[in-house]
Design brief:
By secondary structure, this protein is mostly helical. It has a domain at 274-382: Orthogonal Bundle (Cytochrome p450-Terp, domain 2). 60% of the residues lie in helices and 2% in strands. It has a two-stranded antiparallel sheet. A hairpin with a 3-residue loop joins strand 1 (54-57) and strand 2 (61-64). It is globular and about 65 Å long. The chain binds carboxymethyldethia coenzyme *A. The site of carboxymethyldethia coenzyme *A has 20 residues, from loops.
């Protein structure tokens, strides 16, 4: 058994006993109540699942196993002379609750490299898709195709003891994460570069190699990818992609079926697709105004026009956060260090000043501040990754780290199939004594 698997098994076995005892002693205690507004309003804020890899505080933002993003930037191992954390380290942390050593992260980089070969049938499946198929649709389908080799599905078919589910779930997760950069790069090169593909570089780390296979060699862009793939990895369990992963996985679907489902949730414009919508909206503004250096008055008017057309301002607002997203701030700091004179970055910063004032003045928007998606596109555009319909795939590759770690924990803890209760409108009216 490898060191990560061993550590994960030890930690999760201990938590499994704790959970069992909590259930036995406190199973009847109430932790929450559901209001009618929550019932109709997308279950907002209802405490209804256990998820340990990360937790989201409305004011402070995301913490991964207790560590916020500035702390992770300090503590997680990097490449020699690197400034950004390696996503491998975050995966280790989410799986074990411990900050890994450099040697542990180097091992994980090598392990994912070993597992990274993608079967030809996955590329053939992608090649069969119609030109113009959205990259997220391609990504979701490719993940399903990878599922042909699911060890969990095979072991289940053979008849596996339920106490051992965690083992093939770990193996599948490691295999899938290892292969995703190759699959995602294939989609990018197939869609935008006439099927001219780039072979992996065995000297590079997981994120660096992904950037290389996309076609980028700029050192700073490789650093950006390490940061990007770290900060998008997880956002507690209730968000649409993580929750989908948990829900689908709770039926004992394997990691590929579950993650493909998660990606279909991420592909919605109110969730991960907002990163493409932000840059599309900014490009349209630049085009309409005829300048990439619009005045603040012009920007303010454009925001009002968008709202008057009954549309949302992409990249702003959040179901949980009530402050600027620390993931936005981390990207802003990156831009300040590397590319502060970029005109699109300047627009993003002007929007950061103006959008919250406008949204705040409407009254109904609970969080007028930027989320993670408000900044990412401007950084990618700067380095030449301008094909914005691809952006959510980058988000998805990163999200695999958090939600796969989460699913490994689900199986290790033996969590049951998810099955909340729905009610009919008639039931509700009856309950509320409405005729
Ligand atoms: N622009 C315009 N209106 C907005 C808004 C925005 N950015 N954010 C919220 N509102 C509106 C809502 O549409 C809602 O209007 P109605 O009452 O007319 O339906 C009202 O304000 C209240 O919504 P809320 O409680 O503040 O926000 P929700 O929890 O319902 O929704 C979110 C959260 C993210 C879907 C919403 O803020 C939004 O649509 N933002 C723009 C899309 C976006 O950036 N999504 C990415 C989120 C991060 C991610 O998952 O990647």
């Amino acid at each position: 058994m490898d060191a990560l698997k061993e550590k994960f098994y030890q930690k999760s076995s201990a938590v499994k006993v704790e959970i069992k005892n909590i259930l036995k002693e406190h199973g009847d205690k109430k932790v929450d109540e559901v209001t009618v507004a929550q019932l109709i309003g997308g279950m907002r804020g209802v405490k209804s699942m256990v998820y340990d890899t990360s937790a989201l505080d409305p004011e402070e933002g995301i913490r991964f196993r207790g560590y916020n993003i500035p702390q992770l930037k300090e503590l997680l191992p990097r490449i020699p002379d690197g400034r950004e954390p390696l996503p491998e380290g975050l995966f280790w942390l989410m799986m074990t609750g411990e900050i890994p050593t450099q040697a542990e992260v180097d091992w994980l980089t090598a392990e994912w490299r070993k597992r990274s070969e993608v079967p030809q049938h996955v590329f053939d499946t992608l090649d069969a898709l119609a030109p113009g198929t959205h990259p997220m649709t391609q990504f979701s389908i490719a993940i399903l195709a990878l599922g042909h080799d699911s060890i969990f599905a095979k072991r289940y078919e053979e008849g596996i003891n339920k106490n051992d589910y965690w083992d093939p779930m770990y193996e599948d997760s490691m295999n899938m994460i290892a292969k995703l950069p190759r699959v995602a790069a294939y989609i990018y090169r197939r869609t935008f570069f006439d099927n001219h593909h780039i072979a992996p570089d065995p000297e590079l780390d997981w994120a660096g190699n992904f950037a290389h296979m996309l076609g980028f060699e700029n050192r700073d862009f490789l650093s950006l990818m390490r940061l990007y793939l770290t900060i998008h990895a997880d956002h507690e369990g209730g968000n649409a992609s993580a929750h989908t992963m948990h829900l689908v996985g709770s039926t004992l679907s394997d990691v590929y079926l579950s993650f493909s489902g998660a990606m279909n949730a991420l592909a919605g414009p109110l969730h991960g697709l907002a990163n493409q919508e932000v840059i599309k909206w900014i490009f349209e503004m630049v085009e309409e105004l005829g300048t990439d250096r619009p005045s603040k008055d012009q920007i303010r008017q454009y925001i009002h026009d968008t709202l008057n057309e009954g549309k949302v301002i992409p990249g702003y607002g959040h179901a949980v956060l009530r402050q600027p997203d620390p993931r936005f701030i981390a990207q802003m700091k990156f831009a300040e260090t590397y590319i502060k004179d970029d005109p699109i970055v300047q627009i993003v910063w002007d929007l950061f000043e103006i959008v919250p004032q406008v949204l705040g003045s409407i009254g109904k928007v609970k969080n007028p501040w930027p989320n993670v998606d408000a900044h990412s596109g401007s950084l990618l555009v700067h380095y030449g990754l301008k094909e914005y319909t691809y952006y959510t795939v980058l988000f998805g590759v990163s999200r695999a780290l958090g939600v796969s770690a989460g699913l490994c924990w689900d199986r290790a803890l033996g969590l049951p199939i998810e099955r909340p209760k729905s009610i009919t409108t008639d039931w509700l009216k009856n309950f509320l004594s409405i005729n």
